[in-house]
Amino acid sequence: MVVRSSVPRVEAPLSVAGVTLFAAFALIGLGRTGGVVLGAAFVAALVLLVRFARVRPADPMPAEVGDFLDHATPVPHLGRETLRVIAGLAGTLIGAELLVVNAAAAAQRAGVPQAVVGFTLVALGTSMPELVTSIQAQRRRNADLLVGNLLGSNLFNSVAGGALVGLASRDGPARLGYPVLAAMVAISLLTWLVLYRGYRVSRVEAVALLVAYALTLPLIL
Hints:
- The chain is an all-alpha fold and 221 residues long.
- Helix content is 77%, strand content 0%.
């Protein structure tokens, strides 16, 4: 998978910064103060992304992508495709909701800690739309959409999601353990380095990322 040169220099650092900021507040306590700061960080990230998108020159299209588009079928009707997008999104969200609710209930009945459920079953369920979208984007050779989806979701979940949780907190600041948060930031940095090295992600590097995730699981058990 080949990525644009601008991704490791703009989008990836913002994603790592968002994850690191969320980890810091989760360590000291994610309360309303943290929610305000994370909300401001989300607005700032949006402004930066829009500004970089306006001033950034268009990247040259790889030859293989141009050949693929030349042989692609004509663009379908906009209205029909919009309905298909909405239907696909609704189906994905419903499926993720069913997976999360039932898996979490089953795990809690089995006596599994909530942290374990959140880092495994719930994380898998909420990431299913991203995984499916990424796979389809790669099959259609839309690497920018793929990388933007993954990095953007990490940034949005960290600052926007963290802001909503912090502002809605009524039971005092929520805290997580240092090892788990350190591992989360470390994997984000590893992803950035993988993208920065050669502006591509190979199968070996993909396996390394999966191994890194597997190594974090014992930290929450």
